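Recall the central idea of this unit: under ordinary conditions, the amino acid sequence of a chain determines the structure it adopts. In this exercise we apply that idea directly, starting from the sequence alone.
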Amino acid sequence: YLLSYLVRCGVCGEPCQAVQRTGRPAPYYFCPNSHVSAGVEWLDAIITPIILARLKDKELMARLSGGDDAAVVAARTEVAELQERLNGFRDAAASGELTAASLAHVEARLLAGIKAAKRKATSAAVPSVLRGLTGTDDIARRWERLSLAGRRQVVATLLEVRLDPSRTRGRAASEDFDRVKIEWRKA
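Accordingly, the structure predicted from this sequence is:
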């Protein structure tokens, strides 16, 4: 189940488990302390479009790219070093030590290297589970192709879901969308 142990009870904070009980028509998420419960299908249908909309956010990648682990630092260092080399060649051309044709040749190669290093730096900064999901037009199709474990990783990476008690009972509770609280992580 997508949100089993990822959705938390809004009363006690305990993770809610998904179960299919005998006598119940469909599986549901429930608090171990019996504070809240909600149908799996109902809650998943609320959360999935929200996640897909978040992944379509063009600025998500930029907000997630603030990491400073070794791979990110190395990739950003490579960008800076290539840019410095390019600036050195441009200075040499400006002072007449390098011909315009030579500068054009060197510049083309270094700019391609800088572009590749920037892509590597951006990719390294994004959590691996989100690589390939953000910044594309076919996010929904890619989401569908993810394994359940992959989808659960995306949920755990992007957000925390809290389920408050419903103010109503029975079928009317399925209309109580306000009891679903979402807190975004990192981004």
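The mean pLDDT is 85.
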